[in-house]
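It is worth pausing here to work through a concrete case rather than discussing structure prediction in the abstract. The textbook approach is simple: state the sequence, then state the predicted structure, then interpret. We follow exactly that order.
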Amino acid sequence: MPKVLLLGIETSCDDTATAVVRGGVHVLANVSTNQDAFHAKYGGIVPEIASRRHAALLSAAVDDALSRAGTHLDQLDGIAVTAGPGLIGSLVVGVAAAKALAFATGLPLYAVNHLHGHLFAAFLERDAPPPYPFLALLVSGGHTQLVEVESPTALRIIGRTRDDAAGEAFDKTARLLDLPFPGGPALEALGRTGDPKAFAFPRHRPDPGTLDMSFSGLKTSVRYFLESDTGKDARREDVAASFQAAVVDVLIDRTARALDARDYRAVVLSGGVAANGALQSAFLALGERYRIPAFVPERRFCTDNAAMIAAAAERRGDVARVDPLHLVADPNLPFT
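Step two, the predicted structure:
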């Protein structure tokens, strides 16, 4: 599908996102509306609210993306939509809209795994995309995994978290520190003025022969520390910085172990937590240490967005093409 023009739709969680992308690289429009204000008082995403907001916003978001791109439905080459994983109510809204548009226009429809979208976010707005094979560290609120990417259609998870995802650990620890929702960015902001070496929170060590990770013990350690006499008097900035340093150390350690195990031509950081400044700095330094290019998407492409869904569809091609009448949203969509 060379230089195709795709409309992307992403509604896996609480961001209503649409985009128009040419050739899986050039972003002509990237529209995203978050729902933070609707969920903040609950301290997390409320699925029913998320799906209702998607239903209210998606039609306008599609029109807005097409308008910003200076194009129309009849000029598109296809429609790409997130089919899963995610919140079922949210996914259904996006999938139903994409199916209706594809059926009405006769355009090809591409079903994209949300995690594949994150992997190919690093290809957006780049003259020289990551070369294959590359190693990807995918870090988000719901997933943390190392992925071996031989080609757009040959992907293999070689390491993953055994409990909390890194982004989930950020959010839960932020609540322990009484930080507002969304917790991850708030904790990073607080930690900027803290000492990352103030407290020696534990780093998970992998079992022999694995690259798996764990963050639940770290989160629990922070909770017990904050309940202790020492913790009650500790600077919250130091706690945030020390917690963040522990998460980054584990992520970089597993990535380094994977790089030691085989040769890759590049390393890619992706997912919502890829927007974290401390993680980005450590990841880029890792690339320099191993003398391979390290790719980090622009911040707007780290968090959930529809441009990455279009990018993944363009690269996966016919593997992702589906019949509009038979596509169903799958909250547990398998990775491969």
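Step three, interpretation. The mean pLDDT is 95. The chain has two domains: 5-122+301-322, 132-297.
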